[in-house]
Amino acid sequence: MSRGNSILSILQNFLGKDFNLSLLVSIIRKTFGWFLLILFITVLSVWLFLRYTQPIYETSSEIIQKTEKTAQILGTDELLRGDDDVSREIQIIRSRLLVARALEHLPLDVRYFKEGRTRVVHSELYRSSPFTITIDEIKDPAIYEREIYINIIDRNTFTLEYEINRNRIRETLSFDRFFENNYFILKASLTESAAEQIHSHVGEPYFFILENREQLISRVSRNIQVSAINPRTKTLQIKYSDNHPQKAKEIVETLTKEYINYDLERKQESASQILNFLNNQIDVFSDDLAQFQDTIKKFRIENRYLNPTDEVQMVMGRLNRVENMMLELSFNLQAIEWLENYISGQEDLSSIPKGINIANLEQYTHYLEAISDLEKEKNALLLNVKSNHPQVLLIEENIEMLKRELFENFFTGQGDMLEFQEAYFNKIYQQNISALLNIPEKEAEFSRLSRQYEIKERFFNVLLDKQAEYNIAKEGIVSDFVILRQPRVPSNPIFPNPLLLWSGGIILSLIAGIIIIVLRYLMHNTIISMDEIKRNSKVAILGAIPSHKKKMQTSEVVVDQNPKSLISEAFRSLRANLQFIENVEGPKTIAVTSTISGEGKTFIALNIAAIMCFLEKKVIVLDLDMRRPRLARAFNVANEKGMSTILIEKDNWKDCLNKSGTKNLDFLTSGPPPPNPSELILSKQFDSLIEELKKEYDYIVFDTPPVGIVTDALEVLKKANYPIYVVRADYSNKNFISNLDKLIDENHINKLSVVLNDVGRGVSGYYYGYGGYGYGYGYGYGAGGYGYGYYSDDLVQSVPWYRKIFTKKS
Question: What is the pTM (predicted TM-score) of this model?
Answer without folding.
Answer: 0.59
